[in-house]
Amino acid sequence: MINITTAELNTLLAAFIWPLSRILALIASAPILGNPSVPVKVKLGLAIMITTLVLPLVEKSLPQIDPASGIGLVILLQQVLIGVAIGFVMRVVFVAVEMAGELIGLQMGLGFALFFDPQNSGQIDIIGRFLGVIASLAFLAMDGHLMMIALISQSFNTLPIGPTAITDATFTTLANWGGEIFKSGLQLSLPVLTALLITNLALGILTRVAPQLNIFAVGFPLTLAIGFFVLGLSMPFYTPILEYLVHDGLNLMMGILNIDEINMP
Question: Does pTM surpass 0.90?
Answer without folding.
Answer: no
